[in-house]
Amino acid sequence: MQHGIKRVSLSAEAKRLKLEKDKSKIAHYKQLTENIFSLRNLQTYTVESLKETTQILQINPEFYTMWNYRREIFEHLKNNIPVEDYAQLMDNDLKMLMVILKRFPKVYWIWNHRRWCLFELVKINRVDWQYEYAVVSKLLELDSRNYHGWQYRRFVVQNMQIQATTKAAPASKNEESLVVLGINIEEFKYTTSKINKNFSNFSAWHNRSTLIPKIYNLYLQLEAPSEKSPDVYDIFKSPRSILTHELELIKTGMYMDSEDTSIWLYMWWLLTEKFFTDELRKEDGAYLAVLEEQLANVEELNELEKSDHIYHWDNCWCLKTIILVKGLIQQEHVKTNKSSALLTQDIKNHIQALIEIDPLRKGKYLDQLEGKASIIPIL
Amino acid sequence: MSETEEVKAFYKEKHIAFVVDQDSHRSFEYWLSEHLRMNGLYWGVVSLVIMNALEDALPQNEVIDYILSCWDEKTGGFGAFPKHDAHILSTTSALQVLKIYDNELQVLGEEKKEQTAQFIKGLQLSDGSFQGDRFGEVDTRFIYTAMLSLSLLDELTIEITDPAIKFVMACQNFDGAFGMLPGAESHAAQVFTCIGALAVTDNLHLLDDDTKLGNWLSERQVLPSGGLNGRPEKLPDVCYSWWVLSSLAILKKKHWIDLQKLEDFILECQDSKDGGIGDRPDNQTDIYHTCFGIAGLSLIDFEKYNFKEIDPIYCMPTEVTKKFRKWKK
Ligand SMILES: [Zn+2]
To answer: Is Repeat given among the entry's keywords (chain A) (predicted)?
Structure first.
């Protein structure tokens, strides 16, 4: 699988030269491979055989069978050396993996081996999740959208929480919640910093959406919530205060780059997520008021965008959002989500306009006009 | 047709040569890709069979001999290459290729069929998910490949599918799409594996309103290229022509994107000189993108290219998949 590599067309001569040059590399690689397979056949589980696998994995970290053999070696060594030495071996592997990961940040097998090593360290009570936390932050500096990196971060954070709640001497429920909350607040702040660096980072928005209900619920469990990170507590007092804070945050982003899909997707979540809407519906007209206010904001931005456009076209994402929000408002009025009741003439006109400015998705808009697809998608 | 619109050609003969040639390119990179050889074989066979060129281009007995030589008797699955360990990904590819040649999987024999089924079933964890081998990597990709393999072996049971699908549904996000694990960000390739798993196990009804998911999938098409990306704010890539379009096809919403523009994008990514398809125009070609580019074209309009029709759930020709029994709840 080649990604993002420019095609180079080699002449016959250049091809021949490359094959010539490859010869010694190939011979070395094949020799190494054969050697390791025969060591494995002889059930050799020594530090020397380990070194052989290191060599080949540094050349080709996707050679999964070699990772497997490496783990088999560890599984045998473990029973024959002191715990301290085994811990040292694992630490060495973590160091080696860090070097390889920087070169191959998207190889599943490397991430998986790192996980395996950490669980080995868990078994002998020598794991340092804090260190891993620093490692993954560093790797996400190199590529702030790395899918594996974000997943690994959630994995580390999850284990930090497990560790905090399974200490030998059980702390009080309140103390436990405090620690777990602290970890999640750090994560929340991390998404804020990633977003401030780049509003398009949907990976950060995604994580933020999973952290919000969690942090809110953790605050609820505290005996004295307002004492824990008061600045954050200000935001998390109620679903309502969170919503206000988040809508303010995305408003900035919208004006900075109205074509950025990340912000709009996040806004749609804010305006339709039960966590917020259930709370708003407790107060008469509160949900409608939020919707009306957001509609006004987006319409205002759309007007600005229109005046900037040579043909005075609507902004595509503004218009998509206007349709959604008007649909949500209509839904509050008619108390149903039936397409027929939501498709007012006004909304139909907007959808018609979208067909013009977003023709890629014309088929979807036609389905919406015919009532075959909802204008307010629900999960 | 106006004069400015050029008709883009499909370089069928060159692609056939490109696929067949994979093995003769003995560069260093070729040796470095042994761990992908079984998948590579599957990508090659699918490319050829869809272009109606399999029989003439690849000797069937050699393909089958190769697959059997990758059997790992320690575990009862298939590795990517002789002596390599069995893994669920290479096992699925092996079964898919064998099934294309032989609906009854006779070359495998009853004993190996049984062992393969046991290998896969043994990878299911208590939360319903599947690991790729005994070393614990978990991912919705492995649920899809497990469901698919067990379907090809006619070994699905409700005891296996129910917990697996429960896990799949836990991977759905607020945007309607799916990630690799619960809590993981939505990703088009993971969406395919999740919808595919639902479809293979007769569970599509769980997406009772699929508009949100359809929406997310249709938003993957971007301008100016007309190609599809895998996540918001990422670059388009030919392989998503498969992951996204097959998902839309399973949801019966292919018309939610501009198929003509996508077709143009795929054709644009061909290497008109040496054959093969790359991830983006003017990029390096490989067998993986060649396969998914061709599979995408088959979904768009198989008749126009005189292709075989591809099954969006199994990524195999429909003439193969309609021959075997589909599992019903
Ligand atoms: Zn790709």
So the answer is: yes
